Amino acid sequence: MGMSVTISVATERDAEQIFRLQYLCFQSEAALYGNYRIDPLVQSLDSVRAEVAGDCVFVARLGEEVVGSVRGTADVDGTAAIGKLCVHPRLQGHGIGARLLRAAEGALADERGAKTFRLHTGHRSESGLRLYRRVGYQAVGTSKGDDGVPMIVLEKQAPAGSYATTA
Q: Distance between CA 135 and CA 150 in Å, rounded?
């Protein structure tokens, strides 16, 4: 009867589904701040395609449908930026976000030498903050997004040695 959600590296053919999913998922975030100009809502499809081509991008699939996504990059100092984590509203609360995070962290550590993972989330994003804390992130500061939204900066250290990519 049911299908299970799988986590895999995104391909170029996923870009449009990621673009649409991100637009759907970040509506509630925009509503929290009364700001519908937040980056995930104004990002272009071409920009999403470029991220899929060059960044570390994972998707969660239910059959052929992309129901979740996350992106990450790593700099030469070993700091990885993880962002735009989203899960379709009908599937939130089932561990898909944590699985996507683990997949991105594993790839960023194993393939790109990340030692520290950093992400930003809106200061009112209680569900996101709960998830990030549950998987080991700690608040290390604050910032303001280009869109003016106050953000909390969270970090987590990669485990020593090889990172187990068990999504």
A: 22
Could you report the per-residue pLDDT of 42-86, keeping only the tens digit for each?
Answer: 999 999 999 999 999 999 999 999 999 999 999 999 999 999 999
* CA–CA distances in Å: residue 68 to residues 12, 113, 116, 159: 15, 24, 23, 25
Strand partners, 59: 8, 69
Range of the domain at 66: 5-157
Query: Does a structural domain hold residue 162?
Result: no
CA 140 – CA 146 distance, rounded (Å): 19
Domain count, the chain: 1
Q: Which of 33-37, 112-116, 156-160 has the highest mean pLDDT?
A: 112-116
Cα separation of 107 and 154, whole Å?
19
